[in-house]
Amino acid sequence: MHFDSQLRQSYRRGVTVLTLEELAEQTPPGTPWLGLDLGEKTIGVAVSDTTRIIASPLQLIRKTKFTDDANAVLKLMDGRKASGLVIGLPLNMDGSEGPRAQSCRAFARNLQRIRTVPCVFQDERLSTSAVERFLIEELDLNRKRRANVVDRTAAAWILQGALDRLRV
């Protein structure tokens, strides 16, 4: 199934998810977006600049319970005056959705129950492995140092991918 058609299916599943173009149209110019890499134990967070050209790693949230995790994300949005979210969607290599993708959709759906937040899903296949490879080959970081930066760097990779797609 094509990724854009999967986004459209999000509407039918009760999640208010936009296309990337709709996110750009519906969020105020000059406001950044946050990118999220939703892992099992952590949430990597990245932020764009106000021109939405460059994404930078921001923070790592250690997951506890959903309400606390959601409030931490919303607090970061408020603090940065971010107007939208780009959430990594970990699709399988064949484009299908597994349990991790369903978990990401559930996070977005539950977040919308707390506050309506404009968001889009971004295909994140291989983002973590690409970031790991970069951290090893280019920055020569050891395993412990990589563990501290990989998730927020993956969030930046996901957000940057969305920003780049807008400029194409």
Automatic annotation (TrEMBL):
<dbReference type="InterPro" id="IPR006641">
    <property type="entry name" value="YqgF/RNaseH-like_dom"/>
</dbReference>
<comment type="similarity">
    <text>Belongs to the YqgF HJR family.</text>
</comment>
<dbReference type="GO" id="GO:0000967">
    <property type="term" value="P:rRNA 5'-end processing"/>
</dbReference>
<keyword id="KW-0378">Hydrolase</keyword>
<dbReference type="Pfam" id="PF03652">
    <property type="entry name" value="RuvX"/>
</dbReference>
<keyword id="KW-0963">Cytoplasm</keyword>
<dbReference type="GO" id="GO:0005829">
    <property type="term" value="C:cytosol"/>
</dbReference>
<dbReference type="InterPro" id="IPR005227">
    <property type="entry name" value="YqgF"/>
</dbReference>
<comment type="function">
    <text>Could be a nuclease involved in processing of the 5'-end of pre-16S rRNA.</text>
</comment>
<dbReference type="GO" id="GO:0004518">
    <property type="term" value="F:nuclease activity"/>
</dbReference>
<keyword id="KW-0690">Ribosome biogenesis</keyword>
<protein>
    <recommendedName>
        <fullName>Putative pre-16S rRNA nuclease</fullName>
        <ecNumber>3.1.-.-</ecNumber>
    </recommendedName>
</protein>
<dbReference type="InterPro" id="IPR012337">
    <property type="entry name" value="RNaseH-like_sf"/>
</dbReference>
<keyword id="KW-0540">Nuclease</keyword>
<dbReference type="InterPro" id="IPR037027">
    <property type="entry name" value="YqgF/RNaseH-like_dom_sf"/>
</dbReference>
<dbReference type="GO" id="GO:0016788">
    <property type="term" value="F:hydrolase activity, acting on ester bonds"/>
</dbReference>
<feature type="domain" description="YqgF/RNase H-like">
    <location>
        <begin position="31"/>
        <end position="131"/>
    </location>
</feature>
